[in-house]
Write a structure and sequence with these properties.
The complex is a heterotrimer of chains A (about 475), B (about 475) and C (about 100). Chain A is an alpha/beta fold and about 475 residues long. Chain A has helices spanning about 5-15, 20-40, 50-65, 105-110, 155-165, 180-185, 220-230, 270-285, 305-320, 335-350, 350-365, 370-390, 415-420, 425-430, 460-475; strands at about 1-5, 40-45, 75-80, 115-120, 170-175, 190, 210-215, 260-265, 290-295, 395-400, 435-445, 445-455, 480. Chain A has a domain at about 1-255 and about 435-480: Amidase signature (AS) enzymes (Alpha-Beta Complex), CATH 3.90.1300.10. An eleven-stranded mixed sheet of chain A has the order 2-4-3-5-7-6-11-12-10-8-9, sandwiched between helices. Helix content of chain C is about 40%, strand content about 5%. Classes of the chains: A alpha/beta (about 475), B alpha+beta (about 475), C mainly alpha (about 100).
């Protein structure tokens, strides 16, 4: 383990002149050179010269005192977030050559805040996965243990943070895709309240569930990034009409300001080492004076299948557009339209994606729609109402994942085992509430993450609790490798 | 044989200004291929739809005009099918099931049957607002074309689908109904029915003892009548010969004037409907309803009744109402003090006739002079300063050429020396004079014509010319009698 | 299981993805098993009087007056050989022998 500068510290150092943005950019480029061959966190990397030119501009701006909130900070962007200056593949052969003619709103906001986009990160194809193994560009490996997965689907965004290949990153979270990788790489990730961050430009998987969110090596960094990307966007009808949240200058939460609760159903299925680290942390919080209550959320037992049905149904619809027309494939011969479509989709999509599209179509088809799709939306209401009820009383705490980061290949052979990794995270997506995942500790040298969920737009509460926990664990700015 | 006819009328809201979910132009005809497109209407990954207020207001105004039950919240639904012109391979539309809610949940329309002068009521089953797909062209024939050539300029244009109950009694009434519905939408300011391809009609038709046949792709109101006549004739013949009319979809071949079974088998589809997760329901607020009501206040029926109350004959009244700018000018000119009878003839018969004769569109407001001009002209007739015929013959044609011109500039000079014209003609037309005097009374008409011609475009009341001629001719009789 | 496979095959048609017969066999096995697992949600709400929840906050969406224009030429993301001389997109339509 080693410690790296957090983005917040970087900006401080740039500002007071103790660190030069160009020098830092070179250091990150070197880290990438050292690690990338083994980790495969990036699908596309910006050319070093282009990064350096931007770092030089940042240096100028600091010199002139015209720096913006993320001036000269190197940010990695998940490859399902549209960038007009780099390919955006969603880790799919289908979009291998696709360069969007527009930027996602979050990318516009990043660039306007002075951030330098280092590259586009590897992920599960179309964000469908929990391990980052289902990528057309090869699996991502966990910098803490290269035999293990970094979690998914935002595995690349977590892995580059964990080895120092970026200062901040953007992920997307449909059912845990930010929080699982954060937990598996000892980084911090926030799944914002549904509607807090614009989805404009996010290649959709499960539209009604997902949010783009910040990933970082500290809670404060994640808050800073969320502040930059959050707030109403007229281009997204589902974005909430609110101003960007103010999160980067909050104080740690004091005991008595809020209590925590642990729903039995969100911890009892955990592996022994995970439960141990988790309860250990809860114990520390208690000894600091925080109230930690036991609670029950029986609705959670049906959350996982309900989540998958909704996500797959929406995915089947979203992915219908990839038919070889506007996203042509050279390896499919021109022929009859219907055959061409079916062939293009057969070759362009990976197995997991195809399977999920078929299942999504199944869940929406006549004769099955009521017992699958409609039933799932009803379960969703039950889950949301139960979570909102509980979150009004306490911050809901649980492990971020029931297991330690699995070895490559270990989970993907059995789809039900794979889906089970998301059991604690999907709840926040179904309920729309914000959730923070952050390091709770280590077990056998592997990171274990904790998850906190709050009420709608309770990001400030989560950040404040996160700052408190970070002080307790000391796990701020940690990275894999020898210092 | 008695037939049951139900219609599905698709009308583009060509006057909405923008497409339904983006800011591209709703009037796409003026652009070269694929130049009226953006990420939203191309369905690019990550682009998100935001409903246009104007399109929705117009759709609600239509719902008001059709006496519809309007839901509290409008829901957009995804309808899935694969086709080259559908960039997302789903269409955003409205559907009454699976959580959907269209702008109109049922209503009725009363149209004027101008053969019988009865108002006829037809039930409206529903109205929904949806996106038009792009346009597909083929190299030669649809069956052999190697490529479908797609122009997405039309993709996303707001389209109203109006579905009637099978209440329509005859092909003629079907045509009048469609014309009336289009006129209603024109009054609302929603559409310009004369634009190429702005509406299309599908008709469901069955005769007693037969199944329902759907006739697709009828592109003009004249063809609605023709296609239905043909189809009813075809079905009647089958039944009379003891055959069975099967349920099928046929295609109207306008060039040959026949309905034909679909040559190209469209694959059986299941549409996998579900509410679009990118589009939260839109509340139909008081404000929105008020605006829609205001927009819908000008209905053909209301205006027809107003015009009739002014004592205008129904044929002329309908002629005025069937051209919205004519109706506007007429009512305004009456308000300004013009005589309704004179104005009705001028607007509903003769000026409209002048435009038609020149091949100009009487529904194009720019072809009409301001109401003030019409009032002035009507007053000149009422005060006896000019005859109606001289206004009709000498002024209206010049106005039709140049509607903006001042009355003064087109008002003909009046003949002041009528006696010298009469003398001139009597001197020249010796034969006609002789004929008249020898008892051929018809010769007088010829002589009147000759005097009118001699006026060379100056205003001369033909009755006055006749009177003066008679006087002179009678005075010529007496001395001859002596001789 | 037999019925499950028929349903999966129907879904494959709707999904418009080509599968080889071996793939289809594997898909049937995997998908039927998942479908069986997912069917538990139907059981969970059976007899319960719950309304579906499609949009998590059940808030109404806004309407747009105008958003800054963002037209894009197709050439900006589509290879030129996919367009015909007039700028229309060429989508394979009929087999040409």
């Amino acid at each position: 383990m080693r410690k790296l500068k957090t983005a917040y510290e970087l900006v401080e150092a740039y500002r007071n002149g103790s660190l030069d943005p160009v020098e830092h950019a070179w250091r990150v480029i070197e880290e990438i050179g050292r690690w990338e061959g083994r980790v495969n966190a990036y699908i596309t990397l910006e050319a070093p010269e282009a990064i350096i030119i931007q770092a030089e501009e940042a240096r100028e701006r600091y010199r002139r005192g015209e720096h913006r909130p993320l001036e000269g900070v190197l940010v990695a962007v998940k490859d399902n977030i549209s960038t007009s200056f780099m390919p955006t593949t969603a880790a799919s052969r289908m979009l291998e050559k696709y360069i969007p003619p527009f930027n996602a709103t979050v990318v516009e906001r990043l660039v306007r805040a002075g951030a330098i986009v280092v590259g586009k990160t590897n992920m599960d194809e179309f964000a469908m996965g929990s391990t980052s193994e289902f990528s057309a560009f090869g699996p991502v490996r966990n910098p803490w243990d290269l035999e293990r997965v970094p979690g998914g689907s935002s595995g690349g965004s977590a892995a580059c943070l964990a080895y120092g290949g970026c200062d901040l990153s953007l992920g997307s979270d449909t059912g845990g895709s930010i929080r699982l990788p954060a937990a598996y790489t000892a980084t911090v990730g926030i799944k914002p309240t549904y509607g807090l961050v614009s989805r404009y430009g996010l290649i959709p998987y499960g539209n009604s569930l997902e949010q783009i969110g910040p990933m970082a090596r500290s809670v404060k960094d994640a808050a800073l990034l969320l502040e930059v990307i959050g707030g109403w966007d007229p281009r997204d009808s589902t974005s909430l009409r609110i101003d960007p949240p103010k999160l980067s200058n909050l104080e740690p939460l004091e005991p008595g300001e809020a209590s925590l609760c642990v729903p039995r159903e969100m911890v009892e299925g955990s592996e022994e080492p995970v439960a141990k680290v988790f309860w250990n942390l809860m114990g520390k919080l208690e000894s600091e004076g925080f109230e930690v209550l036991e609670a029950s959320l029986p609705e959670v037992s049906k959350a996982l299948p309900a989540y998958y049905i909704i996500a797959l149904a929406e995915a089947a619809s979203n992915l219908a557009r990839y038919d070889g027309g506007l996203y042509p494939r050279e390896d499919v011969e021109a022929g009859d339209y219907w055959r061409h479509v079916a062939e293009a989709r057969a070759r362009g999509f990976g197995w997991e994606v195809k399977k999920r599209i078929v299942l999504g179509s199944y869940a929406l088809s006549e004769g099955y729609r009521d017992e699958y799709y409609i039933a799932a939306t009803k379960v969703r209401r039950l889950v949301r109402d139960a979570v909102l009820r509980l979150a009004r009383k306490c911050i809901i705490a649980s492990p971020a994942a029931p297991i330690l980061p699995p070895r490559l290949g270990e989970r993907i052979t059995d789809p039900l085992l794979l889906y089970a990794m998301d059991v604690y995270t999907v709840v926040a997506n179904l309920a729309g509430v914000p959730a923070l995942a952050m390091p709770a500790g280590f077990s056998q040298g592997l990171p274990v993450g904790v998850q906190f969920m709050a009420y709608r737009l309770g990001e400030d509460l989560l950040v404040r609790l996160g700052l408190t926990v970070e002080e307790m664990t000391g796990l701020r700015g940690v990275a894999a490798g020898e210092g | 044989m008695k037939a049951k006819i139900g219609l599905e009328i698709h009308v583009q809201l060509s006057e909405a200004g923008s497409k339904l979910f983006c800011d591209c132009d709703s009037e796409y005809r003026k652009y070269p291929p694929n130049r009226n497109v953006c990420p939203v209407c191309l369905g690019l990954p990550g682009a998100l739809p935001v409903p246009s207020k104007r399109a929705l207001t117009l759709a609600l105004a239509a719902a008001k005009a059709f006496n519809c039950k309007i839901p509290e919240r409008i829901v957009f639904t995804r309808k899935h099918y694969f086709y080259p012109d559908l960039p997302k391979n789903y269409q955003i539309t409205q559907f009454e099931k699976v959580g959907g809610a269209p702008v109109c949940l049922g209503g009725y329309v009363e149209f004027l049957n101008t053969d019988t002068w009865e108002w006829v009521r037809v039930g409206i089953r529903r109205v929904n607002l949806e996106e038009d797909p792009g346009r597909t062209y083929y190299e030669g024939d649809i069956l052999t074309s190697r490529y479908a050539l797609v122009d997405f300029n039309r993709s996303g244009v707001p389209l109203l689908e109006i579905v009637t109950e099978p209440d329509v009694r005859s092909p003629r009434e079907a045509r009048l109904l469609v014309e009336y519905i289009l006129l209603t939408l024109e009054y609302i300011g929603a559409t310009n029915p004369r634009l190429e391809g702005v509406f299309r009609v599908d008709a469901n038709v069955s005769v007693e003892g037969g199944e329902r046949v759907e006739v697709k792709n009828i592109g003009s109101t004249l063809d609605v009548e023709k296609a239905l006549k043909y189809e009813i004739g075809r079905q009647t013949m089958i039944v009379e010969r003891g055959g069975k009319v099967e349920r099928e979809t046929r295609h109207w071949d306008a060039a040959r004037g026949v309905t034909k079974p679909l040559r190209y088998k469209e694959e059986e589809a299941e549409y996998l409907y579900f509410p679009d997760p990118d589009l939260p329901p839109v509340r139909v607020t008081e404000d929105l309803l008020a605006e829609a009501s205001k927009t819908a206040s000008r209905s053909p029926k209301a205006i027809f009744e107003t015009v009739r109350k002014l004592g205008v004959k129904r044929e002329i009244a309908w002629s005025i109402v069937s051209s919205p700018p004519a109706a506007d000018r007429f009512l305004e000119a009456v308000r300004l003090g013009g005589d309704p009878q004179v104005l009705a003839r001028m607007v509903g018969v003769d000026y409209k006739g002048e435009l038609r004769e020149r091949g100009l569109d009487p529904n194009d407001p720019s072809r009409w002079p301001p109401a003030k001009t019409l009032t002035e002209l009507a007053k000149l007739v009422s005060t006896g300063e000019y005859t109606y015929d001289s206004i009709k013959g000498l002024v209206l044609p010049r106005l039709a050429e140049n509607p903006g011109v001042e009355v003064k500039a087109v008002l003909p000079e009046k003949v002041s020396d009528i006696d010298s014209l009469v003398e001139e003609v009597l001197k020249r037309e010796v034969k006609a004079v002789r004929d008249y005097l020898s008892g051929k009374k018809k010769a007088l008409n010829y002589l009147v014509g000759a005097v009118m011609r001699a006026a060379r475009g100056r205003a001369l009341d033909p009755r006055e010319a006749r009177k003066r001629l008679m006087e002179r001719l009678e005075s010529m009789k007496e001395p001859q009698g002596e001789g | 299981m037999e019925d499950g496979c028929r349903a999966v095959r129907r879904a494959v048609e709707l999904a418009r993805i080509a599968f080889t017969s071996e793939e289809l066999e594997r898909l049937c096995k995997e998908a039927s098993r998942i479908a069986e697992y997912l069917a538990s949600v139907g059981e969970a709400v059976k007899g319960l009087d719950v309304e579906p929840l499609y949009h998590v906050w059940e808030e109404e969406g806004g309407l747009r007056d105008r958003i800054e224009d963002r037209r894009v030429p197709l050439e900006s993301f589509l290879p030129p050989e996919r367009l015909d001389g007039e700028g229309r997109v060429k989508v394979p339509w009929r087999e040409v022998k």
